[in-house]
Amino acid sequence: MNCLKVDPNLLIKRNDPKIRDFTYTCLDLLEEYNLPVNIYYAYFLGISEFKLKNIWNHMILRWNKMKRDLKENEDFINSKYSKDDFHQIHVNMNDFELNELLIDFIGSTQFKGLFVCNCIQNYISPK
């Protein structure tokens, strides 16, 4: 899939063994594109819970940077994405809370789902 910076299958080697049980659903809308979302879910479940907020905050930093960079772009200004407002969270969260935040963030838009995947990839392997 050329919408992602890294082939998700290359991220498997970066996943640690699962340390919690939870069923994530936030990226399920991307399965119709044969995107292996289970790799992202496995990553979430293999890291310490306190790092979940770091993933969220990393994503929100990138979202807000994108909004700043496009603040004078007429197409962006007129899009529904310019009105979305999300904030960092500075307390620990659990799997359920991250899943719910991501469901709220993504909604039913594949664009935001791919944005989340790219942010997770960047978090795992910064360039």
List the helices and strands and how they pair.
Elements: H1 38-46, H2 52-69, H3 74-77, H4 95-106, H5 110-124
What features would you describe in this structure?
- This protein is mainly alpha-helical.
- The chain has one domain.
- It is built from five helices and no strands.
- It has helices at 38-46, 52-69, 74-77, 95-106, 110-124.
- Helix 2 packs across helix 5 (110-124).
- The longest helix is centred in the middle third of the chain and has 18 residues, at 52-69.
- The model has no long low-confidence stretch (mean pLDDT 92).
- Summed up, the domain count is 1
Biggest pleated-sheet summary: none
Mean pLDDT: 92
Strand content: under 5%
Shape: globular
Count of distinct strands: 0
Please count the helical segments.
Answer: 5
Radius of gyration: 14 Å
Helices and strands, in order, run as HHHHH
Helix proportion of residues, in percent?
Answer: 40-55%
- N-to-C terminal Cα separation, in Å? 19 Å
Distinctive features:
globular, 127 residues, mainly alpha, 46% helix
Brief overview:
This protein is 46% helix and 0% strand. With 127 residues, the protein is mainly α. Helix 2 packs across helix 5.
